[in-house]
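Re: the request from the purification team.
They wanted to know what the chain is likely to look like in 3D before they choose a buffer screen. I agreed to run a prediction and write the result into the notebook, where they can find it.
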Amino acid sequence: MSESGQALKEAAQRKGSFAQSLKAVAWSFFGVRKGRDHAQDVAKLNPIHVVVAGLIGAAVFVGVLVVLVRWVVASGAAL
């Protein structure tokens, strides 16, 4: 197995929980993250969890925007 493949396999074995990944992604969406916390996340979070949490966060964000736009347009406040 190649060196990069082994590194990816080891990263996927990290013990960080999915809730920790959700929290890290939420802070990333907000745009505020301390360097120390980022370094801890890189060291302990499972990258697969982070990708899934990011996709969920993006879907929720888009869903909220769609609902908000529909509400504004339906209320007539956009005129």
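For the purification team: The chain has one domain: 3-75.
Please add any questions underneath this entry.
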